[in-house]
């Protein structure tokens, strides 16, 4: 993998991004800001691009000089994927992306006072007690026979808050306006100044069902800063944890998708198989979400020969029963009638919005970080990346089903070829204000963690870009043209996470 860094004045950001894109060869994967005034007196905008063909990442660091206006040229007119990032930068840092077509608040809501920017280093929480509150306007859809249907943010069931406003003409949805970030926890702010080891506790809890993916991205970024070589056995066990996480997510998501259209046999079987996998997680690590296994420098726990046999027996049964479940779905005409041609996400929308993971591969975009930018022990393993082209609910379902089978095969390879050796290496000291990032493939897609070190192995700035952050905007593209009863089905087919936004 090749990585480059280009430092430029902020005024030339759009021109530099245009050159890097090479007509779409490089795609934007993250865009964020950093308050570096205590280091050099400036703010900085970081834009990270990647190319599968070149096996390369390119980073632009755009400097906003202390004597210049706190603004930078918006990349959104050039690439739609930048839209949310720039709105978040404006909310959290007060830096204005000039030329952005929709600069409404994204992360901050109406109870937040204007002019208070929480990720600036000089932010004072006491300043929140006064000030004019933020305004949030919902653009109306007008025309004869058009009406709006508001849903949420409080939902009927165990679900996190999100407000969805549908504009309709008859039964057909014209547009969907999604308002999220209702329970933002400020994790990126709260870890500032913490040691790498203390911050790990919060990283593991960004999202319940992506604990391994988040932890792995974080520790790999820290290990790169510290030039730490992780033992080979630990790398294999990390992949085992990651694939067990992918497997229980995919199996559970298949059941959840069946629930979205009221197909009870699929829902029950998906839930039952997921429960078996989560009980396996608990036997291996002491908890159902595989927390506490991956740590800085390696892993905390080994697996015994008896555990290997236990995993193998269980997964053999899961493989057989999952095959029966998928066969049941593929042979059910009523089920197929609901999922085929429903919630189509075109391939071009995937490329424009920077969609990742299952949603991208279901629309014909052949990209998987495990294969294209291998990490941990993935370069030593053989596996197939399933890709479909129709981009509908059915395609996203079949991608998950195929990936679940591949995860079982990967785990079989791991257990058969698990090398001996130690589990953990020591972490060296890190030079202050050095930065690194790491990308892993979570069950939902690529997951990027970037951090800059502070003094004495602490965190100066931590940025997390989850797969759900990249994929939520795609929902507003896939839903129009369908009917409201299909929305739960379409939504579940993306399996988007609210907590991954509220980090």
UniProtKB/TrEMBL annotation:
Location of the NADH-quinone oxidoreductase subunit D domain: 271-425, 431-503
Classification via Pfam families: Complex1_30kDa (PF00329), Complex1_49kDa (PF00346), NiFeSe_Hases (PF00374)
Domain of life: Bacteria
NADH:ubiquinone oxidoreductase 30kDa subunit domain residues: 8-125
Cross-referenced Gene3D superfamilies: Cytochrome-c3 Hydrogenase, chain B, NADH:ubiquinone oxidoreductase, 30kDa subunit
Keywords carried by this UniProt record: NAD, Oxidoreductase, Transport
Annotated compartments: Cell membrane
Record's bilayer topology term: Peripheral membrane protein
Protein name: Formate hydrogenlyase subunit 5
Lineage per the UniProt record: Bacteria, Bacillati, Bacillota, Negativicutes, Selenomonadales
């Amino acid at each position: 993998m090749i990585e480059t860094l280009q430092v430029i004045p902020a005024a030339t950001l759009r021109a530099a991004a245009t050159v890097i894109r090479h007509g779409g060869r490089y795609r934007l994967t993250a865009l964020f800001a950093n308050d570096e005034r205590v280091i050099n007196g400036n703010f900085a905008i970081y834009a990270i691009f990647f190319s599968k063909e070149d096996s390369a990442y390119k980073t632009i660091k755009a400097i906003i000089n202390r004597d210049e206006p706190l603004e930078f040229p918006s990349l959104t007119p050039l690439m739609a994927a930048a839209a949310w990032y720039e709105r978040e930068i404006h909310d959290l840092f007060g830096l204005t992306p000039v030329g952005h077509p929709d600069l409404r608040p994204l992360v901050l809501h109406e109870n937040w006072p204007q002019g208070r920017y929480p990720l600036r280093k000089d932010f004072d929480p006491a300043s929140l007690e006064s000030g004019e509150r933020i305004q949030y306007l919902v653009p109306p859809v007008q025309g004869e026979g058009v009406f709006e249907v508001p849903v949420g943010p409080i939902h009927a069931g165990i679900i996190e808050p999100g407000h969805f406003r549908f504009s309709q003409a008859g039964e057909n949805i014209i547009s969907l306006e999604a308002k999220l970030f209702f329970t933002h926890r400020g994790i990126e702010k709260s870890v500032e100044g913490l040691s790498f080891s203390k911050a790990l506790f919060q990283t593991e809890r960004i999202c319940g069902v992506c604990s391994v993916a988040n932890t792995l991205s974080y520790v790999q970024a820290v290990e790169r800063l510290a030039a730490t070589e992780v033992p080979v056995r630990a790398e294999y066990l990390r992949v085992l944890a990651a694939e067990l996480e992918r497997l229980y997510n995919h199996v559970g998501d298949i059941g959840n998708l069946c629930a979205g259209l009221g197909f009870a046999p699929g829902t029950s079987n998906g839930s039952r198989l997921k429960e078996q996998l989560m009980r396996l997680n608990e036997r291996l690590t002491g908890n159902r979400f595989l927390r506490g296994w991956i740590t800085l420098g390696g892993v905390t726990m080994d697996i015994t020969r008896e555990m290997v046999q236990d995993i193998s027996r269980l997964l053999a049964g899961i493989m057989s029963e999952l095959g029966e479940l998928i066969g049941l779905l593929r042979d059910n005409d009523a089920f197929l009638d609901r999922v085929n041609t429903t919630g189509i996400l075109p391939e071009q929308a995937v490329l424009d919005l920077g969609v990742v993971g299952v949603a991208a591969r279901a629309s014909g975009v052949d990209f998987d970080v495990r294969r294209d930018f291998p990490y941990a022990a993935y370069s030593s393993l053989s596996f197939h990346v399933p890709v479909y082209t129709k981009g509908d609910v059915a395609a996203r379902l079949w991608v998950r089903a195929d990936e679940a089978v591949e995860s079982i095969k990967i785990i079989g390879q791991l257990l058969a070829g698990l090398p001996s050796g130690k589990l953990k290496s020591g972490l060296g000291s890190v030079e202050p204000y050095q930065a690194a990032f790491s990308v892993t493939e979570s069950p939902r897609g690529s997951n990027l963690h970037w951090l800059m070190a502070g003094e004495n192995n602490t965190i100066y700035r931590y940025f997390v870009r989850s797969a759900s952050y990249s994929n939520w905007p795609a929902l507003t593209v896939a839903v129009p043209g369908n009917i409201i009863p299909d929305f739960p089905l379409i939504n579940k087919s993306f399996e988007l996470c609210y907590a991954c936004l509220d980090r």
